[in-house]
Protein 1
Amino acid sequence: MNKYIQSLKDQNKLNLSTDKSISFKWPYTKIAGPCSVEGDSIIQISKEIKKCGANAFRAGAYKPCTFPVLDDKNGWKEGLKEKGLELLKESKIQSGLPIVTEVMDIRKIEEIGEVADVFQIGTRNFQNYSLLDELGKTNKPVLLKRGTWATLDEILGATERILVGGNKNIAICLRGVVGMPSYRHIYPSTRWAPDLMMILALKKFTNIPIIYDPSHACGNRDFVSGISKAAKALGCDGLIIEAHPDPINSISDPDQAINYETLKQIFND
Ligand code: PEP
Ligand code: MN
């Protein structure tokens, strides 16, 4: 067992968000929004997402895409970047929801930090140590998404990197892992395997809040409600869900986005 994490736990120092703009612990954290900022529509979407019961809004302005060159829709290429951040700023003003958005590059921390209430570290950067070290020096909450390959120790190690910098405002986000593509003959878009047992393992060793991401864990909207219920039953402290007014036409992650109605049901469950 990781000694540093264990000692913090023993001293009851592994602790919870202190930032008043968002509590990872209470009330139950309900983060939702589209995968990415697609354009001006994001402002209206943020208000609708609030009506669905969310207490934080997610959307990426900087997006890591599998094919960075080919993915070019309406001038959107790996996100709207600076323009996307401006739109998120306006969404925050109009909806009143704190913003959760991804940072991929240490050179962008300051710029993104002007808009983000929570820095999201994506799965691809889960072990980007310079990024983790830099975010450890800030006092803004960090949502650390599990690498799709990561073991329990690797999750604790990445978390420790942020903690040792002084930032105790961390939540670990479980978002599915590589695994047997058991359903692909029926559902070609089940990209990852849900990693529900890790909720229990992390709860055993830390009191760091766990946010579950059923959208990426499933990669298919048909499973999002069920896996959300399961994650909640296992004691996760919150959910982060991709939702879109026209899910199948989402620019990124169209297979897993759910509509407002389904989101409302999950959040009211
Ligand atoms: C996302 O949240 O849209 C995202 C890119 O997630 P992940 O890093 O888990 O793939
Ligand atoms: Mn996504």
Protein 2
Amino acid sequence: MFTPMEETKKTRAVLLMAYGSPNNLSEIEPYYTDIRRGRKPTPELLEELTGRYAAIGGSSPLLRTTLAQAKSLEAQIAGYKIYVGMRHWTPWIREAIAEMKADGITEAVGIVMAPHYSSMSIAKYIENVEKAQELHQSDIKFNFIESWHDEDLYIDALIGKIAEAQLKFNEEERKHLHYIFTAHSLPERILAIGDPYKNQLLETCALIAGKMGISDWEFAFQSAGRTEEKWLGPDLLEVLDENVNKGIKSILVCSVGFIIDHLEVMYDIDIEARNHLAQKNVHLERARSLNDHPMLSQLFAQLIEERFASL
Ligand code: FEC
């Protein structure tokens, strides 16, 4: 016999979403084509991206880590099934929706493995879910958690990672440590439409700095797209140059906009930014991403339970 609450839980579920990542080098072209909304990349762009994946070992841990996060979340919110859907590759969001429909899910909370809202990121995941619902003639009632950039558990978990990275510097370096917080750049035109992305990012940084008592920090965008239009700056590499010119010798980078150690962190910071500083006598360390950190699943569980309670 199931209690009424257990009965309700059987028709309620969580959709955990992330960007998506090719499983091997041969999947890069169709993956990249999807990111470019159906336009195939030029041979030069394809070669450049293939080179980046090859440099991090041929594939990214993004899916593996998202699945691990889903598993720990499932353990935290016993009773609700967690479905995983990716925006740009398998397992697709549309596959998750088909599975949810087949399982008789009627209400769901959607959350993305990205803390900051933008019309060019989180809103696109929501659109993707809506299109998938149309495709499968599904009418699951979705409630989306659109941002969680100022939540204590996220801020405190990041502070823990920054504290771990501080220990990679010697005592003298720690006294003069400069902090750079980063996130994925987006086209600058989002500012004109009042997109909250940049402000939410700065709020995250200010909360971390305030709690840690750090005053020597700045924010930079990274991973700007290879397109003609202007992307949000300043770019991480420019900011690194400015710091070199000022004589800064120890820099701790923390990518607050990313949750997982994936391509954009493993290549753009661990390889590209490091190479950029080679021969410049600067000690750079990066705070590890949260990945499947238990405080993150605790936060997701809390936010999801609150949403279900409000339905
Ligand atoms: O590890 C992996 O295999 C995948 C890593 C990955 C994540 C990610 C997250 C975000 N992106 C965001 C915005 C854009 C915009 C464009 C764009 C392009 C790419 C390309 C790759 C890529 N992104 Fe990404 N992104 C990841 C990977 N991204 C690869 C294509 C090559 C390149 O430009 O580097 C430009 C699209 C266009 O051309 O029209 C815009 C944002 C996030 C953070 C939120 C999220 O995770 O969804 C914002 C992870």
